[in-house]
Structures are given as structure tokens and as C-alpha cells.
From TrEMBL:
Keyword RNA-binding attributed: no
Ranges where the Amidohydrolase-related domain occurs: 50-404
SUPFAM superfamilies: Composite domain of metallo-dependent hydrolases, Metallo-dependent hydrolases
Residue ranges of every copy of the Aminodeoxyfutalosine deaminase/Imidazolonepropionase-like composite domain listed in the record: 18-42
Name by which UniProt lists this protein: Ethylammeline chlorohydrolase
InterPro entries documented for this protein: Amidohydro-rel, Metal-dep_hydrolase_composite, Metal_Hydrolase, MQNX/HUTI_composite_N, MTA/SAH_deaminase
Length: 437
């Protein structure tokens, strides 16, 4: 297939009248449209305003999709323990599967081709299978919680880690290596030392498995960890083995100088979730400082109950604007930096090689974006447009691993209407969740 338009190979590389050739699951060539059309005359040709790498959701909660809007305007720990965790606990296996499907379809139709997904304690296998079937690329895992949790979600650490290992053995590298596993403690507040240390030991036993957890999102969370351990949150995570280049920490809003040094020294990845941090009034993460220290920062939406969208274009805009306000400096977090956060930086955090740029030999994760729009007229700088003006609903075409997963309202491999109808039915059954039927 030959995809043509203004090609944004990465934040610094733009071909104004360009093309991308896809063969199998790989990009064969990137270059000028005329040259590629001549070299590949028999390839199916699709034309868009902009052709760009698929975006990476560096921290999402697909299985919270059925709870969009159930806990607005609420403080984080109340939001979590009074609304979101009870919702997760109420989902049966079918509900968990359809919630994940709904989240992945929202990602695909808005240009996100890869996610680092924080599932739930129960029925994680159904969500993993949903990722495989919808065609998204994902780093994901069963959630671990063995203290301070609702009864329906709290598990014995040994049993939970054993179940995680079973899922690793079955799904890590599945679906042509689109699905990779992350051991997923929810956060230090809901996990004992045994559970956290066990997560590290489990990841170490399996090549390529990562660790994904929340960290220092909220001051109340940090105070609880200090009361339990006598240590700052990130120092505690480091003590139990949850730092390093195979670890993704979501949020990291409230960190001191020593913790920032620790993140840089250990190569730990940070995912910035600006919309969620604003909506829950958690605070403003020191992202410019992280970037200046060489910390790899990805970009995430978090979950539908605290955002309330999985549109990564919205998150790019929020990240840049919030960074400028935080520093009172309009040069902070420019469009090129934020676009890298949402593409290659996210792929690095997820541990996917040759994902996040349009390059010969790289994976064919590509999106086509419409620009025949009033707010896309004119486009003086295409990266600026993608970060500050584009919306997820401008995405016309999404390809993952060389397969078309979304094409102008159609999901070729999934009955999206059926998924949405089942989602309404399951949402109506959750106490406090509104039905939109």
C-alpha cells in the first residue's frame, strides 16, 4: 500500500509531498510521492492530508471505559475508592471484555496504535484477548492489589503473582508480538512490600516483561506511603525494585530533587497525564525538568472516568500548554518535544523497538489525518497543527502492523456497533453509571 500526503516521519522530518510504502507489517520506503508512485505503480494508493506515526498512549485504563462520567469533580482517593474501584469490581468477565474493546476502539479511531494499559484485578485475560482481537499494539497486565482494597479486588499476593505468571506465559509475545506483558501493581498504597518485591522478581524471571504502576500522583498518596515506610514514595519504589529502564511510572507529579535524580540515574520512564492531573486537581508534573534531565517522558490519557477521553491529540495540546503555564515560559515544551513524547518516547517506554517513527524497516503503525477542514486552513507548520489544532476525530485511517484497523468510520475486523450496544447494556448495570441507550 502507498500512503501519500504531507509525511511527518518524526517531529523533525517532514516530506511536504511525500509517501510511505507498506508491505506486510513493515514500512518499505519513505520519500517523495512522485518517486514512490513510479517505483511502486501496482500498490493500492490512499491519499490523506497528513500521514504520521501512530500515537502511543503511555498510560491508559481501557477497562474503565464504562465509567466515563461517573465520578466527575472528585478528589483522587475518593474518586478511586468510592467510585472507580467499585465499578471495576462490579464488572463480570463479559463486562471487562467489552469495556476493553470499547477503549481500544476509541484509541484506534483517534489515531492511537499502541497503549501501555493498566487493566484490573479480575478477568484481565478477557481484556488481553480484546487487545489482540481489536488489533492494537499493547503492553498490559493484570492489576495487583493486596491491601487497602475493596474485598472483591483484594487478593493474596502469592496467588496474584502466580496468576500474573500464567498470563505472562500465555500472552507475552502473543498476536505476532503485538501484545507484551507488564507486571502491574496498582500503586504502593494498595500493595504490600511482599507484593511489590514479588512484582520485581516476576519481571526478572521473564525476558522482556516490564513493570507499570502509578507513582506520586497525589499528596495524600505520598503521605500514606511515608507513614507506612518512613520513605518518600519513589525511594520506597526503588527500595523494592520498582525503578529502572524496564519500569513505567505514571504521573510522578509530586517529586523532590532526590527523586528526580533517582529517575534520571535509573533510566525509569515517566508517563505524563496532564488532563487527568488537572481534572483531579492532582497538580502539575515537573515535565520540563524531567526532559532537561534526560528522563524519557511519554504521554498518556489515563482513564475515561478522569479525563474523559482517550484522544491523544487532546493530551498533546494539554501537555504543551500546561507546561508553558507552569513555567510562565512560552518556549517550554514546544510542539516538537510533545509530539516525540506522544510517539517515539511512548514506544520506548512500552519497550517496542522500531515503533513511533516512519522509517524504512520499522513497523507499519501509520495514521492518515484529514486536513480538508476550516481549522486546518492554512497549515504553516504541520507539527504545530498536530499538537495544537488537530483532534482525534480528524483521523481517517489507522494501520497497525500493516493491517488497516480503522478506515473512515469503519473497523474492518470488529463489529463496532455491537460493541457499543453491549457497552451500554453493561454500563446500565453498574450502580451509579449512566446508561446512554
Amino acid at each position: 500500500m502507498l500512503l501519500t500526503g504531507t509525511v511527518v516521519a518524526d517531529a523533525e522530518t517532514v516530506v511536504d509531498d511525500g509517501g510511505v510504502v507498506v508491505e506486510g507489517d513493515r514500512i518499505t520506503a519513505v520519500g517523495e510521492r512522485a518517486d514512490l508512485a513510479e517505483a511502486y505503480p501496482d500498490h493500492e494508493h490512499r491519499e490523506f492530508g497528513i500521514v504520521a506515526p501512530g500515537l502511543v498512549g503511555g498510560h491508559v485504563h481501557s477497562v474503565q471505559s464504562l465509567g466515563r462520567g461517573i465520578a466527575d469533580d472528585t478528589e483522587l482517593l475518593d474518586w478511586l475508592f468510592e467510585s472507580v474501584l467499585p465499578m471495576e469490581a462490579a464488572l463480570d468477565a463479559d463486562g471487562m471484555a467489552v469495556a476493553a474493546q470499547l477503549g481500544y476502539l476509541e484509541c484506534l479511531e483517534s489515531g492511537t496504535t499502541t497503549v501501555i494499559d493498566h487493566l484490573s484485578v479480575n478477568h484481565a485475560e478477557r481484556a488481553i484477548a480484546a487487545a489482540g482481537e481489536t488489533g492494537i499494539r499493547a503492553r498490559l497486565g493484570k492489576v495487583l492489589m493486596d491491601q487497602r482494597s475493596p474485598a472483591a479486588l483484594e487478593e493474596d499476593a502469592t496467588a496474584a503473582l502466580a496468576e500474573s505468571e500464567r498470563l505472562i506465559e500465555r500472552y507475552h509475545g502473543a498476536y505476532d508480538d503485538r501484545i507484551r506483558y507488564a507486571v502491574t501493581p496498582r500503586f504502593a498504597v494498595s500493595c504490600t512490600e511482599e507484593c511489590l518485591r514479588g512484582a520485581r522478581h516476576l519481571a526478572d524471571r521473564h525476558d522482556g516483561v516490564r513493570i507499570h504502576t502509578h507513582a506520586s500522583e497525589n499528596r495524600g498518596e505520598i503521605e500514606t506511603v511515608e507513614e507506612d515506610t518512613g520513605m518518600r514514595n519513589l525511594h520506597w519504589l526503588d527500595e523494592v525494585g520498582l525503578t529502572g529502564e524496564d519500569v513505567v511510572l505514571a504521573h510522578c507529579v509530586w517529586t523532590d530533587e532526590s527523586e528526580r535524580e533517582l529517575l534520571a540515574e535509573t533510566g525509569t520512564h515517566v508517563t505524563h497525564c496532564p488532563s487527568s492531573n488537572m481534572k483531579l486537581a492532582s497538580g502539575i508534573a515537573p515535565i520540563r525538568d524531567y526532559v532537561d534531565r534526560g528522563i524519557n517522558v511519554a504521554l498518556g490519557n489515563d482513564g475515561p472516568p478522569c479525563n474523559n477521553t482517550l484522544d491523544a491529540f487532546t493530551e498533546m495540546r494539554q501537555a504543551s500548554l500546561l507546561g508553558k503555564v507552569d513555567d510562565l515560559d512560552p518556549t517550554a515544551l514546544p510542539a516538537t518535544t510533545v509530539f516525540e513524547m506522544a510517539t517515539r518516547n511512548g514506544a520506548r517506554a512500552a519497550g517496542f523497538e522500531k515503533v513511533g517513527k516512519l522509517r524504512e524497516g520499522w513497523k507499519a503503525d501509520v495514521v492518515g489525518i484529514d486536513t480538508d477542514l476550516t481549522r486546518a486552513t492554512p497549515i504553516h507548520d504541520v507539527c504545530s497543527h498536530l499538537v495544537y489544532a488537530a483532534h482525534g476525530d480528524d483521523v481517517a485511517f489507522t494501520m497497525v502492523d500493516g493491517r488497516v484497523r480503522y478506515d473512515r468510520g469503519d473497523f474492518p475486523h470488529v463489529d463496532a456497533d455491537a460493541v457499543r450496544e453491549r457497552a451500554r447494556e453493561h454500563a446500565a448495570a453498574i450502580d451509579g453509571a449512566p446508561s446512554q441507550a
